[in-house]
Amino acid sequence: MRISDKMITKSIITNIGKNREHMHQLQAQAASQKRINKPSDDPLGLSRVLASRESIKNLDQNSKNLQYALSFLRATDRSLENLSEVLISVKSVALSQANDPTSSAETRRMMSIQVVQAFQHALQIANGKFGSRFIFGGFKTTHPPFDHNGVYYGDSGTINLSLGENIIVPLNLSGESVFGNVLSDDGWESSKKEKRNPFERAPIRSVFKVMKNLEIVLNKNDTRGIQRTLVPLDELITQVISSRSQIGAQMGRLDSLSMEIEKSKIDQRQLISKTEDVDLFDLMHQMNTAENTLKATLDTSGRLVSRNLMDFLK
Amino acid sequence: MSKVSSILELGVRSLRNNKRGIQTASHNIASKSVPGYSRQVVDFSTVASDDSGQFPIGKGAQISAVRRQNNPYLERQILKEQNKFGYAEGSYDALIRAEQVFNQMGKGLNESMVGFFNAFRDLSRHPESAVSKTLVTQKAEELVQSFQQIHTHLEEIQEDVRFQISTHLRDINQITKEIVELNRRIQAIESANEAHIQANDERDRRDMLLKKLGSYLDIRYFENKDQVFMVTAGKSLVLVSGNEALTLSSALGGYDKKNPERREGSLDIFYERFKGQRSILVTEQFNEGGKIGALLQMQNKMLSSLQNSIDDLAYTFAKEVNRVHQLGYDEYHKKGEAFFVISEDSKEAARRIRLNENIRKDLKKVVAAAQPYSPADNRIANQIVNLQYQKLMKEGQYSFGEFYRSLMSHVGLWTQQAKHSLDSQSNVLQQLEGFRESLSGVSVDEETAKIIDYQKSYEASARLMQVANELLDTILEIKR
């Protein structure tokens, strides 16, 4: 085939250009350590990488919320533990003053003061805070939910946290479900011995009403009255235990959810790396090859352009 | 009628021929770098012999033609491939810019949407807190900015495409004017003479201009036996006919029912038939191929559809957030206001979307609660968070994030394909141009050899004339 001068020049320029373009691409990869520097490098891969990144950000945020939930539940649990101790000590007061021969009107009056103190303590627990929030107010977390008589001014709202797609976790127990309603519960054992369905939830007793009753009967030296507080006090203690086990189960669920979230994050990061990261050894090898190719092209190009007939005419 | 003088005549002619040969070879060497140049060859043929005597006596050589080494069929093929190359190039250049829009690894629209939803997750944990509400409005502002940035970026690319269209049209007008001028010259040169004189350089230049024109748009060209030359663009627009060329221009076009999704501000192509008459719309002659075709496709279809999709995303996003936000109650115990400000439909939504000014100024209007007087009520906040997972785009097929990512993948794929197309077209074109060069290109070695050859012949002819002269002298001396 006849070769004109321009063909030689053109092919030199084109070949060098191709080599340099290839090297340019490799350099971009080496500088960023990423295979994908723009969507056209791997459109579907990039899409997956972005989805994983979004996932990780969501997981981080969910993790934050989850940690908060765990702390909140722990605080709730501690409050319930304290409440439990208060109720147990009140019950032992009632027991001793109901039957004990060492008790008297005098002792009963003194014990009634102790019960008043216990009442105050329970009130303190009921109006407890976590951070800036009142724990037992339902949605009304900005003001103390219980007044000095134990009347509940909060609501029954459940604060739910979303910790993932379709993962909704309740955070709180409302004041009423733990401390009962002073206004609707008379504080005494139910006189009617009707057969209650054991699977039905027992009605919530009022902590404050029962304790108030005990204070009154102690003052009045009413031993029969004192005895009648024993069963309600038992019911209250059971009530608190059941709330605590609810919280405990919730915390267990959150612990395993926390581990799942961490594992998900690791999986996503691996996926990103597999798709996006450059294989350094392979890249280095390619760059070496490209460099050698360029050198060879430049070398041969130099030889092609040097001579023509004019050089040899005398 | 001395045979001697015919020898002289032969010698003179031979000198002239060789001189012409050297001239042509020099012209080739000098014009080596002229774009589109085809090397010229001198054709010699023998002069009719003198049959008057006993034997036919040859009367030497003459130049029968100076013609260019050129394959018109190859030229047409190259034109076709130039056209495809122009299309690939036009598409690739615009798409490379479009994919930049989606290339912001850390600050793109995807990140802003995620940030927005995570701010609401924060809020759901602490609806009573002013800090959470501040974060929500901040992230909302970032999101609004992201939408506006994408809009601006895409609009800039559109403007560049439009600028290129009008610039190329100006180039085309210049080319067609020059073709008309060349037509005139070629006709003048070639019809004036009896002999088959070819206007070689003018034809070379015209061929080159045609190829350049062909890279911009689909053209066909014809020449009749009287050297009248015609160029048609597209299916039926006569761009150049004999001595006239149309002047093309671009202007804002209206609604185009073949391209319903194209945006306001799109250009159409016109020409003026007679001075002062209404311009005639001819865009669809240019739609199919070449650089102009690619730019029109970008303007009317690809970029427009991207812009429309982004608008769709902004509109639906804002609408859904507003819907949920307005179900709840703010800290003033009033029903929630619309969170974002948007217009009634999705047109230009990405440009127009704003955070509600009232909410921006007063954090208490950020709604998290589903009922009034419930400080820790986070049900609305949770619902907004949930919007991230729901398939609200494209008739329930994609979530917001998925929709954006699929747009990005599409642009990436288009760009990839355009690159492949460009590379393969470039190879084809290179090969064809290689063939052309092989036939029509100048090789200095070759021309040098020819010059040496002609020079030697010139010397021989001169020597011959000297001999003839001596012969004549000898004859004249007889008669002294």
Verbal overview:
The complex is a heterodimer of chains A (314) and B (480). Chain A has helices spanning 5-32, 43-99, 105-126, 175-179, 207-220, 223-228, 230-276, 280-305, and strands at residues 129-130, 133-134, 160-164, 167-170. Chain A has 314 residues and is mainly α. In chain A, strands 1-2 form a two-stranded antiparallel sheet. Chain A has a two-stranded antiparallel sheet with strand order 3-4. In chain A, a hairpin with a 2-residue loop joins strand 1 and strand 2. In chain A, helix 1 runs antiparallel to helix 8. The mean pLDDT of chain A is 89. Chain B is an alpha+beta fold. In chain B, 59% of the residues lie in helices and 10% in strands. Chain B has helices at residues 3-30, 72-101, 109-125, 130-192, 200-216, 290-325, 349-352, 357-361, 379-386, 400-440, 444-478, and strands at residues 40-46, 61-68, 219-223, 229-233, 237-241, 244-245, 248-252, 267-272, 279-281, 340-341, 354-355. Chain B starts with a helix and ends with a helix.
How are the SSEs placed, and which strands pair?
The complex is a heterodimer of chains A (314) and B (480).
Chain A (H helix, E strand, L loop, with lengths): L4 H28 L10 H57 L5 H22 L2 E2 L2 E2 L25 E5 L2 E4 L4 H5 L27 H14 L2 H6 L1 H47 L3 H26 L9
Antiparallel strand pairs in A: 1-2, 3-4
Helix pairs in contact in A: 1-8, 2-3, 2-5, 2-7, 3-5
Chain B lengths: L2 H28 L9 E7 L14 E8 L3 H30 L7 H17 L4 H63 L7 H17 L2 E5 L5 E5 L3 E5 L2 E2 L2 E5 L14 E6 L6 E3 L8 H36 L14 E2 L7 H4 L1 E2 L1 H5 L17 H8 L13 H41 L3 H35 L2
Antiparallel strand pairs in B: 1-2, 3-4, 4-5, 5-6, 7-8, 8-9, 10-11
Output the strand order for the largest sheet of chain B. 3-4-5-6
Assign the structural class of chain B, choosing from mainly alpha, mainly beta, alpha/beta, alpha+beta, or little secondary structure: alpha+beta
Order of SSEs of chain B = HEEHHHHEEEEEEEHEHEHHHH
| Multimeric status of the protein | heterodimer
Structural class of chain A: mainly alpha
Mean pLDDT over the full residue set of chain A:
89
**Biggest sheet overview of chain B:** 4 strands, antiparallel
DSSP E strands of chain A, number: 4
Proportion of β residues of chain A?
A: under 5%
Low-confidence stretches of chain A: none
> Unreliable stretches of chain B, pLDDT < 50, 5 or more residues?
none
The topology string of helices and strands of chain A comes to HHHEEEEHHHHH
Cα end-to-end separation of chain B: 20 Å
Physical arrangement of strands within the biggest beta sheet of chain A:
1-2
Largest interface: A-B, 53 and 63 residues
Rg of chain A, please?
A: 39 Å
Please state the average pLDDT score of chain B: 89
Strand content of chain B: 5-15%
Shape of chain B: rod-shaped
